[in-house]
Amino acid sequence: MSENHKTPGFVQWLLKVFCREDYREEIQGDLQEIFDWRAEKSGLWIARLRYLFDALSAVRFYQPVKTDYSSSGAMLFSFLKSSFRNFKRHLGYTSLNILGLALGLSAALFILQYVSEELSYNNSSGADQLYRVSNDYNRFGNMIYESSMTFSGVGPAMEQDLPEVIESVRLFGPGIGVERDVVVTRPDKPQIKFKEQKLFFAEPGYVNFFDLMITHGVNNLDKPNTAMLTPELAKEYFGSVEDALGKRLKYNDVSVNLDLLITGVFERPGFKLQIDADILVSYITMERENPDFFVNDWGGNSFVTFVKVTEQAAPRAIEQAMSELTLRYKPGYAERNEQGEYDRVNRYFLTKVTDIHLNSKFQNEVGPIGDANTIRVLQAIALFIVVIAWINFINLSTAKSVDRIREVGVRKVMGARKNELIQQFFTEAVLINCMAVLLALAFVNLGQPLFNLFVEKSLSLQSIDLDRFGLLGVIIFLLGTALSGFYPALVLSSHQTINALKGKSKIDSGLFLRRGLIVFQLLFSFLLIIATLTINEQLKYMNSQDMGIDMEQVLILRGPVVSETRGQENIPNIEAFKEQVLAIPGVSQIGTSTVIPGHGILRGNVISHVRESDSDMKSIERVVTSNDFLSTIKANFLIGKDFDKTMEGYIPIIINASAARELDFADPADAIGQILYESNRYERRVVGVIEDYHHESLNRAIDPMYFVRNEGLDTYYAIRLNSSKVSTTLDRIEEQYITSYPGNPAEYYFLDEFFARQYKQDEVNSKVFSAFALMAIIVACLGLYGLSAYAATQRTKEVGVRKVLGANVPNLFLLLFKEVFLLVAIGFLIALPMAYFGIDSWLSNFAYRMEIGGLLFVLPLLGVLTITLLATAQQIIKVSVMNPVKSLRYE
Amino acid sequence: MNHTLGALEEVIILLVLREEESYGAQLVKLYVEHMKKEITLPAVVMVLKRLEKKGMLKSRMGEPSAERGGRRKVMYEATELGYQTAEEAIKAKTQIWDMVPKFSK
After folding, report:
1. What ipTM score was computed for the predicted complex, to two decimals?
2. Domains annotated on chain B, with CATH
3. C-alpha distances in angstroms, A283 versus A224, A255, A295, A612?
4. Nearest-CA residue of chain B relative to A29?
5. Is there a contact between B45 and A23 if contact means CB atoms under 8 Å apart?
6. Does A292 touch chain B (CB under 8 A)?
7. DSSP letter string, B11-77
8. pLDDT, tens digit (0-9, with 9 covering 90-100), for A285-306
9. Do residue A33 and residue B67 have CB atoms under 8 angstroms apart?
10. Is B68 an 8 Å CB contact of chain A?
11. Taking the model in full, what pTM does it have?
């Protein structure tokens, strides 16, 4: 063989590094020969691998190159040694530095955890081809509803009629609507029963769409009456995962009772799921049970539908094709008006599954909803806090450099070259950054439980999505370390030897930059504080609004699920239960309803003045209540009265003021006694008009609503308490519930708490922002402290002269504080417009928004001034009270 | 002067003796063929250098050749001392081996 095989270049480089020079030619030659021989004998890959081993093994020839003293090994050692000596000498300063950086880094790590989790929703392996189908409904040009769920016919139709759609999956969650509760019982041990909110009827493809791992058993969701559950739930019901397989469970909701066979146990994937099921029941079960609704219906929007499309498919084209397809399945929608437009229109929308969590606009979205803007802002905060920490580091080290001028001078005289000085200071910077990272990791570990409590999640360092943030984080960190290390190093090493020896520092050139950095820190702190304050104030504003009803002292008790009787046969039971509860001391009123304040509203129901005509229909939220419900929550009647037993022989309804306007009643009084038609045909008589009350969170305007009486629906009992011994009353109510509705777990909460859940996300945000604002301020104060220390020492002599000439301590204090005050003022002035526009655009999300008051800005200003005063006072006072004899001698 | 031989040193010096004059790459190939196991070149060269230091081998620069990418090889040859030390080591072992009772079964 005459031709040489090419050896891997990287390994050759490795060899160069490892092998001492005088052996190199021999080794390289030999290795080339062996490489060729091995390549012939066992193939190129084996040869390469062995070559790598050989090169690594050559490390035994490593010989530190002994040349002159400036070379890396010994110098590095010397740098390290003097760095540590220096740290020890300025222990306070060094710890301040490390602490600041560590705080900044740990804040960033916390934020990354939070952000990573929020971004991880539905991030399954095939997510880029998965879409969720939603639809809206327009009638006579009016938007009736927008729904995240669609009809049961949509999924199969897409799969069948559109070539771009590979597979569709429908899910139905009986627990997510407001109409049904689900109780699952172990038949052989009926005492083991739970209300299951996270139960979904699902088609078998769901498992593969979202990477669920079946750890035991098989995916039998294509067969009726089968179910799979999570290991946690398997343990709850059966004690162990193995025991669950092949067992049966009983399913009850208000309309069906099912017998389920457990065929599998599934583990959740590593990312968050928008639809987080504990139990999956085969969808076909419900198709058998209620084919009209579950097989191919085009009216009820209750089905979460996912589709998997081909790689080339364009989602917009599919949406278009679906809208056209509707006409085939809903012939009624083909009617057109005089202008040739369709009277009724369904539009369909495909949303990438990974976009659902953060970008949902639907009132009836299934699963938790986040906010993409918050996530963006948090990422920016993470970056800024770290930047602030580095700025701090730069400020502190340059300020401290005054003390080290002489050291630099001596080093220079002893022959240190400029780049060696830079290396020295750079080594210190890198060391401090490294120690800060270690400390930050410790902080994060220690603070994790507290942070988790704060944001109400279970996060850890492992939550950070390294694919997304890993590389970026490392680059930013290296860049930051390099920049924050180089600047002070450059400044320090560039002193004139002669001045440095005298201890004179003339580093005013960088002063402007350093002041700029401080202003930036303050600006950022201002923005964070103002943001925190704004969120808090708006929350307070919303909570203090007159809701139009009285939610305090109202207990909400969920109605029974397991029941022998259905519908109107229930009335005697419900009546009896109400009587018994009313008899309990401390209970003043009771009523039932299908919807309670705090539930999302989806305007889908129609009501009109005229019978059998499409033209006059209004879509108004419908609530079914019993006698006394509206009086229990203390709704204010503009006219008329609440349902009572005297209203017989007709079905009474009550409307709110918005609905009265929508129905064209000029005066609420005109509405009384009028006949309205529900869904075009059912006759209702208006008996009252109530003032608008806030049924939903105050970020939404009040919707028109009507209340229709039905004594046979007890989804919720609302119970007004007037007791001082609430817990005894609660116990009595619970006892009564269990006696009246055996087999149902009692579940209750207070209405005001339930209502407040809508503000949960804002509250968490407020807490998160305040925590990070605090961290940013602490870090910024460390920087101020450093700057004021620097400024004070610089002006020691000036202060001495002034003192001799008769200046008193307060005068001097003001003189020195003026500089800091100026920086704060500049930071504040820049922050002001930014904050104002930020607040304004944030508040535009709320239908009911507070006024932007001056206090929002004045309080942070005062706060920051006080903090900066505290941070700088010690240094300033030290210089001001110094004996002038001493300060004049200074330098 | 240390006149003992380690196990690997023994094999390498025997291989050098067999070839009269040899070099690293060739020794690796011979080692792999005889001992039926892999070895890294630096391990072999390390042994060669050590033996040279002990005075059992001597080396000279060879000619550059194309198959080594134009690099010169270092040729090793056993010295008198090397020859004797190897012989003694082998003899001693052979004597012991001869006294070992034969394994029946």
Report:
1. 0.85
2. 7-99 (1.10.10.10)
3. 7, 16, 10, 36
4. B68
5. yes
6. no
7. HHHHHHHHHSEE-HHHHHHHHHHHH-S---HHHHHHHHHHHHHTTSEEEEEEEEEGGGTTEEEEEEE
8. 989 988 888 888 888 888 999 9
9. yes
10. yes
11. 0.68
